[in-house]
Design goal:
The longest helix is centred in the middle third of the chain and has 18 residues. The chain is 34% helix and 21% strand. Helix 4 crosses helix 5. It is an alpha/beta fold and 291 residues long.
């Protein structure tokens, strides 16, 4: 990319951001309506004992966006992990993931990346979430907001952003790949069943398979072999793209797991691959300097 091209891309991103105004000014309470009723028998809840946890506001270039932060109450600065939401936004499950990471000693931060487009927690089905909100979210905005989240974390004095990781689920799994290609400060990423291929558009110009050569950090991809929305063939395409580009990418495909196998509040939850994936996440971050 030439300097001129980079300037044009930056200008386009700024233009997109300048046209947005915050719609969601606080985080959802509980679980998104689209996932009700929650499967109570499998729901895991992480307490806040020993943690500082709750909602914060992250300054961006066009206003503040809400986020959930969890970190150890004592000590620090702690290694930092950005947690990127599922398609349902930053609802209770994503908050709980942040608390789980904080219990492991991390400063975990989950910004609400749909803040300008809408509050998906009040929408009742996935199709509505996609058409009314998600389809209107530019990748440039997401990358900029995640950069702002890193700056916020560093500014607290409690986060060591030199040890920066990112993990995301579903919609956030795709974003994890893209951010690992965007920010050279990322040490490692873990993408849970994130879409790898797709059609390019003005708002989503690249998908992970298109950005493989740009990856600046090793990424672990955790996928389900029975995921009807992410065919194994697309995982193979991403493997080859990473191999050709000489990037450090490891893929684990759990043969019988469906999409969202880590979502312990949904019928898609599968305990064995979820727990295995969580152990692999911890090992991956430690191996690559996010610990």
């Amino acid at each position: 990319m030439t300097a001129f091209d980079a300037d044009l891309r930056s200008l386009a991103a700024q233009t997109i951001l300048s046209r947005r105004r915050m719609v969601a000014t606080s985080l959802a309470t509980g679980f998104a309506l689209a996932v009700q009723p929650v499967a109570a028998q499998t729901t895991l809840t992480t307490d806040t004992n020993g943690l500082t946890a709750g909602e914060v506001m992250i300054p961006t270039q066009d206003g503040a966006i809400p986020a959930y932060r969890a970190m150890p109450a004592e000590g620090g600065p702690c290694p930092t992990i950005l947690v990127v939401q599922e398609i349902f936004g930053v609802h209770e499950h994503i908050k709980d993931v942040c608390r789980r990471l904080a219990k492991l000693g991390y400063f975990a931060l989950a910004p609400e990346l749909y803040a300008r487009q809408g509050d998906v927690s009040k929408l009742t089905n996935i199709q509505q979430i996609v058409s009314e909100v998600v389809a209107k979210v530019p990748d440039a905005q997401v990358m900029s907001d995640l950069d702002a989240a890193v700056a916020f974390a560093k500014g607290t004095g409690k986060a060591d952003t030199a040890r920066l990781g990112i993990t995301g689920f579903c919609w956030g799994g795709r974003v994890t790949w893209l951010y690992a290609a965007h920010n050279p400060g990322v040490k490692a990423g873990v993408a849970w069943y994130g879409r790898l291929v797709g059609d390019s558009s003005a708002l989503t110009p690249k998908h992970p398979v298109d950005a493989a050569a740009d990856l600046k950090a090793p990424v672990l991809g955790l996928y389900g072999g029975a995921d009807q929305g992410i065919p194994v063939a697309t995982i193979d395409r991403m493997k080859e793209a990473c191999r050709t580009a000489g990037k450090t990418c490891t893929f684990v495909v759990f043969p019988d797991a469906p999409h969202a196998f880590h979502a312990d509040y949904r019928p898609s939850y599968r305990a064995e691959p979820a727990q295995d994936g969580w152990k692999r996440l911890q090992a991956w971050f430690k191996e690559h300097g996010v610990a």
